[in-house]
Amino acid sequence: MTEQTELDPSTPTEVWAALKAGNERFATDRTLAPHRDSARRSALTSGQNPFAAVIACSDSRVPVELLFDAGFGDVFVIRNAGGCIDSSVSGSVEFAVEDLGVSLVLFLSHERCGAIGAAIQGVNSAALPTNLTRVFVEKIAPSVISAQADGPVDAAEIERTHAKVTAEHLIDRIPALRKGIDEGTVAMVGARYRLEDGRVETVYENFGN
Fold first, then answer.
1. Where are the domains of the chain?
2. Residue 7 pLDDT
């Protein structure tokens, strides 16, 4: 197998370490491309056992499995524009925690996010879009307001705040996640992916006790 799968991450700390190691390989062009062959596909026909759940933006520049050098069955990925949280996303996270037994939930924002940019424009102009982009602008607006509470900040800082605010919101919204954190079986992390250098920067961690 590969470096990542040989580690067999199970605890929240081990899982986050494995994801960060995979991202470092990705950022430095030393990927191992684990779990991407026909044998792995065949092994997964009877079920899945991912070690992490990742909520991320749908942006085509943010391919979650690739940027963590993961493969089939390693990561349960939930994506939409801006990584907005609604009942279907929350239900997916709950399923990942309760039914799939993931040890880590990661909310991942990213550099130059178009959805966050639209939310910044909407908040700063006090004019919400009239089309369907209004849906994610409304969802992201609290992160923009929180980031700007003490004055103007750049988009990068709002992207970091969005990761932190949304990670905290997920804990508050999903009882199974809160319970797992309290018991030390699950952790919640917020992070931001940098397009420029391919690295994921941590902005929030909750590993419980």
1. 12-113+174-206
2. 52
At residue 209, does pLDDT exceed 90?
no
Spatial CA neighbour of 167 closest among 106, 93, 111: 106
Rg (CA), the chain: 17
Give the sign of the dihedral formed by CA 17, CA 178, CA 59, CA 73: positive
The CATH number of domain 12-113+174-206 is 3.40.1050.10: yes
113 is in an annotated binding site: yes
CB–CB of 158/113 below 8 Å? no
Helices (H), 8-105: 12-27, 38-43, 64-67, 87-98
The pairing of beta strand 187-193 with beta strand 200-206: antiparallel
Asked whether residue 59 is marked as a ligand-binding residue, the answer is: yes
Question: 59 near 140, Cβ under 8 Å?
Answer: no
Per-residue pLDDT tens for 36-91?
A: 999 999 999 999 999 999 999 999 999 999 999 999 999 999 999 999 999 999 99
pLDDT in tens, 129-170: 888 889 999 999 999 999 999 898 999 999 999 999 999 999
